[in-house]
């Protein structure tokens, strides 16, 4: 099989790194070769966070995704989808959480947060799945579960739903959050259509 | 046992399996997680040193005493550690010794892009360059055996993508390596000129033997496919090249890169029509090939700087990238990093940036963000600990040239312990009159919260003596010292005012913990109710002047239509800086 490329992006603190971690564990346990790349450091301080995941039944070479080759971008914040859109391959899927997190330059009014970010993505990409995962998670009882909702949508959209994600959630989240995250996973999977 | 590990985790695992007993480091992205993971093993003594030179020397002492030891650091840290490293390379080891350098092509979290492979060449010690996490583990284990066999310290040269990328690793078991006997051996361990002159000659013999090893090392190998193109690559670049060239090229993967395998390279070049050298940072392999009289293509085709990722290679080779979707890039708003809500640096830099007739000499840490908007409160940043000494040098010129400009130097607690202490000694010794501000946020912040000599804990979270910065600077000879709460803007102003016209050096310590810190019992005793409150905007009073936003707090949101500011409750921790800035008293502490 050709190597599959997944790009997860968001703003520091949104749980992209944990979602990417569970994704890679699931892929590894399913017998894929996996590589993942993240850049840490100053980005924790309110900056953009990107995790790149590549997997294949054969050997995966580069840990980073080449622009124009991502099969799917999952963006935990809508501006970050636009920022990373160069990575999507023609025909790829973009999953966007509708949450808007203004950056410092937006808050001070130096730069505008474009009101039509999602329209711009839809103009460029054929398959866009939009959802308000933050609100959906809030309705489940905790906004922090938005990352697992998006993980659910991601694995469904990539046809990876045969992997036992419930088991991976049980092993990787704190016990008191397991039920919440199992619900979030199902909600995310159901939202992939 | 198969695990998905980052390169840093795999280095730590390799050290564990190799029987390492002693590891020392100073935190620095992207190397920090090496020691953090090593410290999880009870079999290995681990320590944060105040700086990389001390870490290197600690590892040297452990090797002399007979234990396998490691020092790990980011690339610029090796500059600090270079003095002991260069001489230890003459001496040789007792227990195997390894230094790990984490280089940063592309400079994600660094001030320069230096290629530390040049250190291996300059110091005449052997070097590995891992390409993925499995390489990290295998090369670390091999490095210890070879270090003892060839009697020399090894360098492992990582790059950011190898440090922070995860890939599958087959792990083994720990091999217990007994501590070797220590015997006095002045010829080896006492670097007198007379001894070093003899060792210097012996290095030539060692290098010849290592060159023979390089030719037969399992970490240097060729993969022959189509022979029109041959690619010679090391480190992460090998996988980037495989991604772009695939099976349309043959490869020579070099993992042991000092000394380079001369015959293997010549042989490979003879089998292919055209040779590309793919490597990050300097033309290290390329220049070696040129000296051998080989015709190769490297920096004439690929950029001299930055990462050699597949996009970069493809563009360099074909002039084009893969097709990308089209959209309006101008709609992408920038998202630069910013000081957190509740960051204790905010109040200080908000006030400091408003001072005229000063020069602010800064340092390396989260607070370097003060150089940008909205603070514009940092005029220079060079390297760890430089703030105080660079500031001193500038102040001397201003004073002698009759320029009325006070130099204010700013650095964090960990950076002060790193190399700031010596700089402050210089300031006192040479009768300077700078104001030196030590931002004591009770932790090493930017690298992700490591303990340091001021925090009261070791890397293993065992209790340690917490060095008192106030007492330390007084002992050095600073007579004017103030410890302030940086969230209280009047305290900031009062301290600056008091010290501004002094003819003697002064120190201001801003003591308040990092908002992201896991607080110790001592923290909670010193600051009861820390970060437990919220501030709130009275919308009726808010005049929409946005003055509060000039503090750069990410919890302050401006509603353009209502022309009012509100506070994001989830983000606010009640530091009250905005409360003090509001000209109409519209921001208040929320009542419980």
Automatic annotation (TrEMBL), chain A:
Q: Does the keyword Lipoprotein apply?
A: no
The UniProt transmembrane annotation reads: none
The answer on whether this UniProt entry bears the keyword Oxidoreductase reads yes
Identify one Pfam family in the record: POR
SUPFAM superfamilies from the UniProt entry: Pyruvate-ferredoxin oxidoreductase, PFOR, domain III
Keyword annotations from UniProtKB, A to Z: Oxidoreductase, Pyruvate
Provide the leader sequence positions.
none
Q: Which InterPro entries match?
A: IorB_Oxidoreductase, Pyrv/ketoisovalerate_OxRed_cat, Pyrv_flavodox_OxRed_cen
- Molecular function via GO: oxidoreductase activity, acting on the aldehyde or oxo group of donors
Protein name in UniProt? Indolepyruvate ferredoxin oxidoreductase beta subunit
- What organism does the record attribute this protein to? Aminicella lysinilytica
Instruction: Specify the taxonomic lineage.
Output: Bacteria, Bacillati, Bacillota, Clostridia, Peptostreptococcales
UniProtKB/TrEMBL annotation, chain B:
Reaction(s) catalysed (UniProt annotation): indole-3-pyruvate + 2 oxidized [2Fe-2S]-[ferredoxin] + CoA = (indol-3-yl)acetyl-CoA + 2 reduced [2Fe-2S]-[ferredoxin] + CO2 + H(+)
Q: Keywords in UniProt for this one?
A: 4Fe-4S, Electron transport, Iron, Iron-sulfur, Metal-binding, Oxidoreductase, Pyruvate, Transport
Q: Which residues hold [4Fe-4S] cluster 1?
A: 542, 545, 548, 582
Q: Which cofactor does it need?
A: [4Fe-4S] cluster
Write out the residues that bind [4Fe-4S] cluster 2: 553, 572, 575, 578
Please list the GO terms describing molecular function.
4 iron, 4 sulfur cluster binding; indolepyruvate ferredoxin oxidoreductase activity; metal ion binding; thiamine pyrophosphate binding
Q: What is its EC number?
A: 1.2.7.8
**What Gene3D superfamilies does this protein's entry cite?**
3.30.70.20, 3.40.50.970
Kindly state the subunit structure of this protein: Heterodimer of the IorA and IorB subunits.
Role according to the record: Catalyzes the ferredoxin-dependent oxidative decarboxylation of arylpyruvates.
Tell me the PANTHER family matching this sequence: 2-HYDROXYACYL-COA LYASE (PTHR43710), INDOLEPYRUVATE FERREDOXIN OXIDOREDUCTASE ALPHA SUBUNIT (PTHR43710:SF5)
The name of this protein is Indolepyruvate oxidoreductase subunit IorA
Species of origin reads Aminicella lysinilytica
